[in-house]
Amino acid sequence: MPVLPILCELAGALLLAAGNERGSRALLRRPVPLAPRRLARLTGFALLAIALWGLIRDESNLLFALTTWTLSCGSALLAAALACTLRDNPPARTHTHGRTRARQNATDTVP
Amino acid sequence: MKPTFRAAMTWLHDWTGILTGWVLLAIVLSGTLSVFRPEITAWMHPELAGRTADPVQASVAAIDWLHTHAPQSPAWYLTAAGPRAPFTWAVWQQQDGQFVQRALDPSSGAPDTIRDTLGGEFFYRFHFELQIPYPFGRPLAAIAALALVLALVTGIVAHRRFFTDFFTFRPRKGQRSWLDAHNLLGVTVLPFHLIIAFSGAVTLATLLLPWGIIAAYPGAPAQFEDDLSPAMSARPAAGTPGTLAPIEPILRDAARHFGADGIAQIYVYNPADAAATIIAIGGNGTHVGFNTHVLRFDGTTGRLLADYREHRPLISASAALYGLHVARFAPLPTRWLYFICGLLLAAVIASGLRLRTLRRRRQGKSTEVVERLNAGMIAGTPIAFAGYFLANRLLPTTLPDRAGHEVQAVFIVWGLMLLLAIALPSARSWRVLSCMATLALASVAAFSAPWLTGVAQGTAAVAILLAAGFAYAASRRQAPANRAP
Questions:
Q1: Which residue, of B116, B139, B162, is where some domain finishes?
Q2: Among B167, B185, B335, B345, which would you mutate to test the A interface (most chain A Cβ atoms within 10 Å of its Cβ)?
Q3: Do the Cβ atoms of A75 and B183 come within 8 Å?
Q4: Is Membrane set as a keyword in this record (chain A) (predicted)?
């Protein structure tokens, strides 16, 4: 079991979540400025790249490694999204101004 | 006319999902289970638990048995035993023309000591034939695969804030939560969804677009097959009796040629004829492409007639896409990832179906019938598939046509679940069917006892996790009046 690439992917996915506006607000429970978010995002991408390199080394086959990496990245991102959901602070969001909430809803896919 | 491109794509996404959602759900769930086809077959043959088999020895035993008991069959199709499956899977034709599929004992080559079941083969066949008589099942599956590609592409266009909402899931908010779940599960595993849908459509492309073949091979579709897989074609029968050469040296030779890939399949054409042909197909141990290394032997002399490796670029690309779809190359962790991603795709479809009814309800339109059918399909399908596992353990092992009865059990359970869902109010049918799914899946886990093998442990773990999911769903169900808007 390639433990190191898995850990790299999980860490990378969490950093990508921290680099995302909503993700960072959920994880850190406060708004995060753009610069640290950009740094987190870049580090996240770097960790995902390291995970790919680790998988290529483990599998000794580029296609096998790419397939595994793609699938496991999806699962890691989902785990990060779950972490964001669990960390999200519902009471803070109930105070969202009604007009802001309405604007958010209006710009979502399904009205 | 829709006002914007995005609105048009949203409309198309909705209607594609509505028209094909239920079929796609069944296709995706059965395909997800097919990732572990040999393991499911092994689970359904508890007589073979803990056994190991040498692929060559087991194939030799199987061919010896077939030589005695099915010499009249025009061909024997064998899937070799291996680390994932301690048995040879054989398909042959009886004198009445009926095809028989059985697992053969790795030592004796006989099926007598093993229960008659299709095992994982049922899910594999159902995935692209839908248990509908030839030729209707496969084209329907092909259309569904194409619809999935269309739904994914239009879904990407329709999803406004692709990256902004990447890590967003807002629970306990009714329709908003279902939309978040639908988007999140769709977006995070999008490469898998796209590849599996596209490769599925490509796999069945000749059914969707047969006109090129008809134009290039007028009246001779067999010639197309020969050109597509030159080494797979058998010599025409000579019409004079012949005897098969000793099979073990042939298979050892084939195993040496295949090296780390190993032998995956063995076809013996015209086994009792002087022009008998033996085809050996290499496995996917070291490459993604499927069936790209084939050996053809003269069945009566054992002489190697052809050592064919596929190098044509387009066919290699097609074999690679098919290989990515069926994941035979995948080592165990990757196979688990395929399985998880398959479940997530099923969840995307199910959440999309649910979202549609919630939206219509919010618009003040009646959704009761669709909601009941949704419950019957979304919760009923796992119950029906669990029923297949349970029938395997509950039906007497000596029952004639036992494999057929197991398959019938799936459709009887499925039909009953749909009837139950239609008979009950939708909120109640969700709760009742979720409870029944929990019970059925927990029973599958219990029937995996004594959980000594990896297959039994894996089956029990998946069944328990899914049962827990349905138990949670049942506990969360509320009457529509109490539900959050």
A1: B116
A2: B167
A3: no
A4: yes
Cβ contact (<8 Å) for A80 and B167?
yes
Residues B74 and B215 in one domain: no
Provide the number of structural domains found in chain B: 4
Cα B131 to the center of its chain, rounded Å = 12
With an 8 Å Cβ cutoff, is A89 touching chain B?
no
Residue type for position B116: D
- In total, chain A counts a number of residues equal to 111
The reply to whether omega before B74 is within 30° of 0 (cis) is no
* Structural domain boundaries in chain A: 3-107
Model-level ipTM above the cut of 0.85:
no
B residues 7-46 lying closer than 8 A (beta carbon) to A:
10
What pLDDT is stored for residue A111 in this prediction? 35
Cβ–Cβ gap A85/B288 under 8 Å: no
Token pair, residue B66, equals 């077939």
Of B59, B92, B116, the residue at which a domain comes to its end is B116
pLDDT along chain B (485 residues), means of 10: 84 92 96 96 93 94 95 95 93 92 94 93 96 90 95 91 82 86 92 95 90 89 87 86 93 94 94 94 85 91 92 90 92 93 96 91 87 94 97 95 96 97 92 96 95 94 97 75 42
Q: Which residue of B has its CA nearest to A62?
A: B287
Q: Does B168 touch chain A (CB under 8 A)?
A: yes
B166/chain A closest Cα distance in angstroms? 8
Query: What's the domain range around B199?
Result: 1-44+118-222+331-360
As a whole number of angstroms, the distance between CA B368 and CA B424 comes to: 10
Nearest to A1 among B191, B286, B333 (CB): B333
Q: How far apart are CA B72 and CA B60, in angstroms?
A: 18
